[in-house]
Specification:
The protein has 132 residues and is an alpha/beta fold. The longest helix is centred in the middle third of the chain and has 13 residues.
């Protein structure tokens, strides 16, 4: 068994903020939703490796009434601490909240928590450069 995708929610009309966070901020590629699901709103994103294989898939669904996920969250693994630093800086530069207070609290990794435009928590982590 392996994970196919994770879904987080946004309020109706929140797709553009999702695109800024997940697309512009994290560099995920938006992919078309299937025709049968497109009318529901939301948007889908993927990450790919150097060979074009999907390495992560995230669906943003419209939920009413909406409440942001402040504890439950997707965790996206980046390849290196430098990529983590760059992603955090890019998100902060776009105006998204990025919290580094737990950077060294997960053995073997460095991490931050960011909050998308709807207020959902997203963890970004990378293998630690030095000893755990």
């Amino acid at each position: 068994m392996r994970l196919h995708h994770v879904q987080v929610a946004c309020p109706r009309g929140g797709e553009d903020e999702a695109r800024r966070f997940y697309g512009t901020g994290l560099g995920l590629v938006e992919v078309p939703k299937p025709d049968a699901l497109a009318g529901r709103g939301g948007c889908w994103f993927r990450a790919y490796d150097d060979r074009g294989a999907v390495t992560a898939e995230l669906h943003i669904g419209v939920e009413e009434p909406f409440a942001p996920a402040r504890k439950a969250h997707p965790a996206l693994l980046l390849d290196a601490v430098a990529a983590l630093d760059e992603a955090g800086a890019r998100l902060a530069g776009l105006g998204f909240a990025v919290d580094w207070t737990e950077r060294h609290t997960f053995a073997g990794h460095e991490r931050c928590h960011a909050f998308d435009g709807a207020g959902n928590r997203v963890e970004l982590l990378a293998p630690a450069a030095g000893p755990a």
